[in-house]
Amino acid sequence: MKWIYSILLLISACSAQNSSSMTPETPINQGEYRYLSLGDSYTIGERVAENERWSVQLSEMLRQEGVKIGTPEIIARTGWTTAELAEGIKNKNPKGPYNLVSLLIGVNNQYRGQSLERYRTELQDLLQQAIGFAGGNIQRVFMLSTPDWGVTPFARGSDTKKIASEIDAFNEVAQQECEKLGIAFIDITALSRTAQNDASMITYDQLHFSGKMYRQWAEKALPTVRRLLK
């Protein structure tokens, strides 16, 4: 697995990327809702166009339904773990409140062999930050589950059953922490696993998911997000 890690770090190196006391309903930019999208390669959209990122596609779907929401502010980078996302947030220093905040993080914790206990602790902090960015409104925060990179061609030769089992374990922790706080948790892992039999769901790097797959994630999240914004 060391060689896979080296390639992931190379991809990462080549890739580009406070809350306040105001209420999260306070819009800016001529009435547009503000959306903060936090994560790793699956949020920044490694190897896809900006308009194919899942959170960007989600925003466009909402606009088509008449919701005045701006393009998401994205804090994400390929290769980031929970700790690195926290550092990225600190460096970016986003200014809340946001009307919507999403989180998708965990695959690199799993990939690097980090413990579930560490993931839980660092995720708890990130979820609290997300709530803060939403002006304290838990109903404006949601999290997507971590997809299964073991179904990609890049994972051939690896123990894909072990990868799937570990991904499920990380997602169980994430779902537990979201449920404790009352944060919506959206499972897109099953969707990611359909890529095993559909090459159009994978980008040319044979590792990351395509805009077509991201659209499915956005469609899965749409009903929940529609409800959160009411």
List the helices and strands and how they pair.
Elements: H1 2-14, E1 35-39, H2 41-44, H3 54-64, E2 73-76, H4 82-92, E3 100-104, H5 107-111, H6 116-133, E4 141-144, H7 160-181, E5 184-186, H8 189-193, H9 211-228
Parallel strand pairs: 1-2, 1-3, 3-4, 4-5
Helix pairs in contact: 3-9, 4-6, 6-7
Write a structural description.
The protein has 230 residues and is an alpha/beta fold. The chain has helices at residues 2-14, 41-44, 54-64, 82-92, 107-111, 116-133, 160-181, 189-193, 211-228; strands spanning 35-39, 73-76, 100-104, 141-144, 184-186. The protein is built from nine helices and five strands. Strand 4, helix 7 (160-181) and strand 5 (184-186) form a beta-alpha-beta unit. A five-stranded parallel β-sheet has the order 2-1-3-4-5, sandwiched between helices. Helix 4 (82-92) runs parallel beside helix 6 (116-133) and helix 6 crosses helix 7.
**How many strands in all?**
5
Number of helices: 9
* Lateral arrangement of strands in the main beta sheet: 2-1-3-4-5
Beginning-to-end CA distance, first to last residue: 45 Å
Order of helices and strands: HEHHEHEHHEHEHH
Low-confidence stretches: 1-29
Q: Describe the global form.
A: globular
Computed over alpha carbons, the radius of gyration is: 17 Å
